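User: Predict the full complex structure for these chains.
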Amino acid sequence: MAKIVIKFGGTSVGSIERIIAAAKIIKRKVDKNDKIIVVVSAMAGKTNDLVRQSQKISKNFNKRELDVLLSSGEQVTSALLAGALEECGIKAKSFMGWQIPILTDGEHNNSRIINMHVGKINRYISKKGVAIIPGFQGISNEADITTIGRGGSDATAVSIAKVFKTDECEIYTDVEGVYSTDPKHFPKAKKIKKISYEEMLEMSSLGAKVMQSSAVQTAMMYDLPLHVRSTFSSAEGTKIFGSENIDYSKTITGVTYSKDEAKITLLDVQDKPGVAADIFEPLGKNSINVDMVIQNISPDGKSTDLTFTIKRSDLIKTTKIIKLNKKKVRFKSLSSNKKVSKISIIGAGMITTPGVTYKMFRALAQEKINILAISTSEIKISVIINEADTTNAVKKLHTVFNLD
Amino acid sequence: MAKIVIKFGGTSVGSIERIIAAAKIIKRKVDKNDKIIVVVSAMAGKTNDLVRQSQKISKNFNKRELDVLLSSGEQVTSALLAGALEECGIKAKSFMGWQIPILTDGEHNNSRIINMHVGKINRYISKKGVAIIPGFQGISNEADITTIGRGGSDATAVSIAKVFKTDECEIYTDVEGVYSTDPKHFPKAKKIKKISYEEMLEMSSLGAKVMQSSAVQTAMMYDLPLHVRSTFSSAEGTKIFGSENIDYSKTITGVTYSKDEAKITLLDVQDKPGVAADIFEPLGKNSINVDMVIQNISPDGKSTDLTFTIKRSDLIKTTKIIKLNKKKVRFKSLSSNKKVSKISIIGAGMITTPGVTYKMFRALAQEKINILAISTSEIKISVIINEADTTNAVKKLHTVFNLD
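Assistant: Here is the predicted structure of the two-chain assembly.
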């Protein structure tokens, strides 16, 4: 008999009807498994509601109290789900972060779980009880409530899988798994059956948004297999493993895109050590996230062109900061383009397959799509193109790399 | 410098705007007082919302989990109020029931507070911090969350006043205090400046509903003065003391009425020991609350007439139970009247003032109001009359006893 952890995301417990449906999923597992630990998110929309309330009081609401406030969301779901299981005749009990306890590093609003006690929960699940644990919350050394960042319930589930040495960790969500590209806009998108942690991380940060990145990182660190699947279907979802467990018959696993990009190019920047730091330091200090950076090789060794991408919503702020900083960083002119998007192909298989880059560029050229910037890593190639070409580019790459 | 406890009821923290207003009331006190402990209810309507959600899952929702669920309401208010105070530049911190801890007898949904630790809170308020404590919640010996019954935040405030030996206990609510009769329907109703615990208890149970009865009882037991006042006005409210501190220039403190009464009379009941018990035992077992009971003196020593009142909504159930029980309790006939109301005059002063009963009956007679039943205690006289006469009766008694 297995010990498993099951996590339900916000939409999977977004209403009383869905909580009852989640209880039925658990009920089916109770017959097959000895020991079940369930981790729940707040009901969909609840955390945002609470944040909105706090912001009516202060844009800079006290961090300690924000944790007290927000942790109530998962508390409510835990109690409702435990009650729903009891109503089905299944022995169940909620355990708050402080009751277990789940110990964090104490940083408010963005804690990391550092340890948790297993005794209470292990005793309970050994006696055929289903333990319900609110995600996202723990306590500090001083017994303050601390939350572990938005989407933190995934991190709670993975930490529990690790500390309790469970055999499985299932993440129930509102999609059937991870797709080869966005299934909402591209009907040819296919569900990926198996994916490596590394690929999943590249998919997540590019907008696949199926699972929280830091939870995937933790799972990767401890080599814990995950299974992302839908609450609304009994179909198998996507299994996330180390890449050594995956057979790469396909070079590319997925094609992602992001339309909220903007590109800035600085022409004739002085080419000397420290210039890049001088440009990007004030941006970092203003919480502007720079994504791709491309610096051309300087032909004369004196000046160079520098291109980088940022979130489109940061464009005005960014150009302002750079212009204010002109005394320190000299350049000839600044040009920007806010009608660009980023297209990426991801696949752990590309490490061993030569010619992927060439194949990608050729495919885009066939569609007469101009590449404005390129950035590559071991398992990902990203290009910046004009936004208007996004759909054509995704469709073409999806076909060319045999994902249809 | 004083140590005070201030309690805000649900309507006083019913929206973000009101929570900010409550923070301002506290701010004014911070300048004058060294040490402030605040107790809060859930935002108005919140507890009912949560109960409704639980009942969609089960009419008989698991009691332990109901406590986990409902205690989240006060948790939210505590965090929001602490954040609002911090935003005003006042040092403040929320302390959940488990963080203090507040220890209860462990009964779910209806616990009693048996003790609380003072160290953490005393250290904090000694350093000019405002401690915010959620009402209604505590923990059991097994560290389960336990709630202390609806309206239980009043009980939390009074217990804190006792254990922390505070100089004052202010109860902020949505009315300006206790009135001589219902101010909504009788414009001549006057705010009572001082009232004894005993009178307040009689007023509460009759529907004045300004404060939870068990909290008043606790205050009476420990002789803790209370001050009930409005969040929406700076006017002094009603102070509640032991009767020895009150100067009774008026015999009667208030006139209350209740319209949801029904009267049942059993004619020719056998007059022998144990009959009353035989009648009322099955009612009690069916959770029917019998209020007034009047038994006439039996003229022949063999049979008697028995009249009693119950909630109007229990009438059908009650007559059914009595008829089912006819084998055991014999009577000639049962008559009932569901169009009756109960009028009471309350006043600790009536103990030392002869003729109050007579004066009341005479006043009602002058209005041609027929008295259907009478019941008296040391500080209260209640009569049952036809419901249609309610307004006339209240007005007349309010005038006759100099309350206008």
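Chain B has two domains: 3-174, 254-400.
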